Amino acid sequence: MNYTEPTAPHPRPHSDRIARLVLDSATDFAIISIDLDGNITSWNPGAEHLLGWSEAEIIGKNACIFFTDDDKVNGVCDAEMIGAARDGRAEDERWHQRKDGGRIWASGLMMRFEAEDSDQHIGYIKILRDRTPQHEAEQRLRDSQRQLATALDAGRLGTWQLDAATLLLSCDDACKANFGRGADDAFSFHALLDAVHSDHRDEVSAGIEHALESGDTYDADYPIRWPDGSEHWIHLRGTVQCAIDGTSMTMTGVTLEVTDRKRTEEALSQLALKLEHAVDERTAALQAANDQLRREIAERHHTEETLRQAQKMEAVGQLTGGVAHDFNNLLTIIRGSTDLLQRDDVTEEKRKRYIKAISETVDRAASLTGQLLAFARRQPLKPQVFEPKARLASIDDMLRSTVGSQITIERDVAPDVWPVLADPAQFDTAMLNLTVNARDAMPEGGVLRFVARNVDQIPARRGHEATLGTFVAIEVSDTGTGISDDLIDRIYEPFFTTKDVGKGTGLGLSQVIGFAKQTGGDIVTASDPGQGARFTLYLPRAHDEMLADKPITAEEGVSLRGHGCILVVEDNVQVGEFATQMLHDLGFGTTWAANAQAALDLINQHPEKFDVVFSDVVMPGMNGVELAQRLRRDHPALPVVLASGYSQVIAEEGSHGFELLQKPYSVDRVAKVLNRLLAARP
Asked: What is the pLDDT of residue 258?
């Protein structure tokens, strides 16, 4: 962490109300949060009081700012962070720099700070306590002790000698005077003990006796009562000496006055206890606040999860209601047409009209389910490599007929636009949906513009960061009414529409964003209300090694009359009966198996009987894709056609190279596909 001051402060992180109150109330302590780069992210009033900088001045600056110059040079601030990261905490006492140039002596504690729901290290908390008065007092005490060590005589009360054999105490005149004895008096060691405070007599006696027995130096402080009744602290220092012949042993020592020092030490001890108690109280308060904060966060998470679940249920309800509304409209047309077809008086012209209405309504229902699957990113796509310029040109007539003569269509496609890998049919549908929305936004006419260009990223959108890569951006813009700011985030929701009832399902943009995301791209929206809207579709570039899937053209001219034997595999009774009857009416021979295992048994019993297997995908037990793969392995010459309204396997993995018919399929389409496969058999 090198000491550099950033040019601009970083934004202050969000703090919960409880945590903020705790930090603001701690005016006797500096409580500072620091990020992993060493920059200050929060600064409580206590920090401002101790160090001088206001919160606005200090946020975003490097924490080394309040270390002394010597400590910065010696890397002390780096070492403190490294120690806290490694051990969880780092403690020290040292001088710290104030804003006004002054210094404070502070005890510091830096703690590693981790995210609540993981062990991820996200920063540090540093707590500083001002100990300048105590430090200065301790320094004065140390100075006094040094002075005492160099000038013992300044506090000398007298010298003494204790005979180990007789325990008689011999003192100089000064010592005798202090103990209330005359110049000629002699007294025993026990007389000395009588003057010692009762709480310390045993300790002094045992200490001196031990020194006499072991020959160690005696060195101790203890309180003593003076003849005038006052109590003082004295320092007793004695050295044991033995006669050369070993016949006698004495202890010679000096008595020093240390009352002032002891009183200072006691005062410091009491102050330390008070400070320790205050720290404990603050720590307990911080812990209680932290516990409360965690409880509130947990409660908030629970509330948010409940809200998300409610929103999901609301979306499901909206989706279900929209699907039910649209399908009921379609079923109304089908039901009415079938009822009218059953009347005896229906004319040939009306019969054709009702049949046409049923056919068109089925197509509309299939389109609706396709849009739903595209929105849910479950539509089984058939990606091919195609040129956007050529594709836009091929649907130009359709788009012009959609918008009418009042709207001018312009195209600006760069000549070097890359080919893309996407489902061309879904691409056409996306362009048509965007065109319809643009037309409805320009009721008085205007300009619809298509622009295509190469880009190297998808920009940030809807909470997602920019995505790097090679994409083709196809921009569709109009000069219509635009989209208001309060609606632009909702336009991709299913069944959300601002159009009048009956003029839109609200699934058009859902299909566009679903197709884009399932293809590996996205869509970005921009709008100025009253100035029009701009939708930019991003599709992944097709690289040189990708080959376009060739569209099926062999069906042209294929007869609708069938031949050969078709094995129908379908678990739904109604669909199975209809499929076999349909194929029979087309001229095919048919056998119906209700599940994949039954189909395998029939093929194994009569391997030469069947010419094509026509199987549903979604079935209990072995699904249609698994059946087709099994047949590809065991009977490679037997063609397989899969049919599906929707299959998660198909949506996620594709058809694995097998022919796929989307339900609802037309009779003509089934006949052409089956006859083409039969014609290709050896």
From this structure: 73
Give 543's DSSP letter: P
pLDDT at res. 230: 74
What is the rounded distance in angstroms from the CA atom of residue 588 to the CA atom of residue 583? 5
What distances in angstroms separate CA 380 from CA 518, 573, 582, 617, one per listed residue? Answer: 9, 25, 25, 12
Model's pTM, two decimal places? 0.38
pLDDT > 90 fraction of the chain, expressed in percent and rounded? 15
Nearest alpha-carbon partner for 525 in 516, 517, 535: 535
Helical H segments across 44-108, by residue range: 45-51, 55-58, 69-73, 76-87
622-624-625-627 Cα dihedral, nearest 10 degrees: 60
Give the closest residue to 168 by CA, choosing from 196, 192, 187, 191: 187
3-class state of residue 448 by DSSP: strand
Bin 585: left if φ > 0, else alpha if -120 < ψ < 50, else beta.
alpha
Bridge partners, residue 615, by sequence: 569, 642
10-15 LR contacts (CB < 8 Å, sep 24+) = 10/35, 10/39, 10/41, 10/59, 10/60, 12/41, 12/42, 12/55, 12/59, 13/41, 13/42, 15/42
Q: Which residue's entry shows tokens 């699904």?
A: 623
Largest CA distance in the chain: 155
Rg of the chain over CA atoms, in angstroms?
47
Of 192-206, 474-488, 506-520, give the range with the top mean pLDDT. Answer: 474-488
* 239 DSSP β-pair partners: 252
**pLDDT at residue 598, rounded to an integer:** 93
Question: What distance in Å separates the CA atoms of residue 307 and residue 320, rounded to the nearest whole number?
Answer: 20
DSSP alpha helix (H) spans, 344-475: 348-375, 388-394, 396-403, 424-441
Least confident of 35-44, 94-103, 498-507: 498-507
Quote the distance between the C-alpha of residue 573 and its chain's center.
49
Distance between alpha carbon 197 and the CA centroid of its chain, in Å? Answer: 67
Q: Which pair of tokens denotes residue 424? A: 């061309």
Does residue 140 carry a pLDDT above 50? yes
Distance CA 187, CA 172 (A): 12
Q: How far, in Å, CA of 55 to CA of 12, rounded?
A: 10
- Which letter does DSSP use for residue 215 in this model? -
Q: Cβ distance 566 to 612 under 8 Å?
A: yes
**Strand pairing report for 467-478 and 446-458:** antiparallel
Phi then psi for 382, rounded to 5 degrees?
Answer: -120, 80
Q: Are 251 and 212 in contact (CB under 8 A)?
A: yes
**Does residue 614 carry a pLDDT above 90?**
yes
Amino acid at 260: D
